[in-house]
Amino acid sequence: MRRNSLLLGLLIACSVAALAAEYQRGALVREATIYLSPDVKSAKIGEILRGQEVIILDAGRGWLHASAELGEEKTVTGWVLDKGAVRKDTPNGDQILYGEAVDSEDQASRRRGRKGADKDAMRLYYRVYEYFPDAPLAGAALYRAADIRWQVDREDVFSRPSGKERDSGLRGQIDDSWMKLVMKKYPTSKWADLAAFHLLDNKVCGDWQGSSKCPDKEADLYEKYATERPQSPVAPEAIYNAAWRRAAMVDMLKTEEQPGKAVEARKRSMDLCQRLLQAYPQSDFAPRAQRLFFLLQQEIPVYGNVQD
């Protein structure tokens, strides 16, 4: 008897899952009200934001009978006007979602832009990847979604008291799941290179606290990145970051009474500047490397308030 009950339960669960799989999904490119019944005069039961997904249970007469997750553990079912919902079979759906995401990101960058537009952009970019993973825009969309999420989380992590800790292991970590997804799904793309660069944020010190150990560690991280990913769009930046940290160490090491290591740090910084100038002469970081090289030649401090 118990075995039959378990079997029946399994069959019911499978049937429900199969039925759910048949429903269409759609992401909205507009804000929409979800109503209790297919009538704009009926009770409003929630608001759906750009990029939020609706499970379409039925459609007809200009309405969608849909279920939507509006917040943590809050799912509502009602009626939404059939306007602005992009499905997987919508012609040029990937471009429509991407275009709305770009517009939302632009809104977020404006001083008086739409509130919550950054989160709208993040959701919309992610829907491009989710609905159209093989589209030309998919890699860029997933990276841009991950980038927005990363920046929001990064600000939160580094704004906490623990964000000032010298040891990166003593603070919270930025959620790296989406960045790692970019690297997994599009491993040979520039988006994977950019994602890998972001991951270094979880390894750098919060505050150097005047210790040469931090810039030394960080310089190694950036130099290793540039060596392993020379074609990355941010390889010049990584080399410059390493060079600047080596330069910063010079006077720190003198203060720590390690003159020999200070000389070595100066040489390594100058070598990195030359490497950047030779490998990426057209980069925006080339002039900065040239300046840093000049300061090192002149033995001008580049870190702190040290003066001759």
Which class of secondary structure composition applies to the elements? Answer: alpha+beta
> What Rg is obtained from the alpha carbons, in whole angstroms?
26 Å
Number of helices: 10
Count of beta strands: 7
Instruction: Please bin the fraction of helical residues.
Output: 40-55%
Question: Which runs of at least 5 residues are low in confidence (pLDDT < 50)?
Answer: 1-20
Strand order of the largest sheet: 6-5-4-1-7
* Main sheet overview: 5 strands, antiparallel
Principal-axis shape: elongated
Average pLDDT level: 90
Oligomer category: single chain
How far apart are the first and last residues' alpha carbons, in Å?
90 Å
Beta content comes to 5-15%
SSE string, helix = H, strand = E?
Answer: HEEEEEEEHHHHHHHHH
Describe the fold and architecture.
The protein is elongated, with a radius of gyration of 26 Å. The relative contact order is 0.06. It is 54% helix and 14% strand. A 5-stranded antiparallel beta sheet has the order 6-5-4-1-7. A two-stranded antiparallel ribbon has the order 2-3. It is α+β, with helices and mostly antiparallel strands. Mean pLDDT is 90; it is low at 1-20.
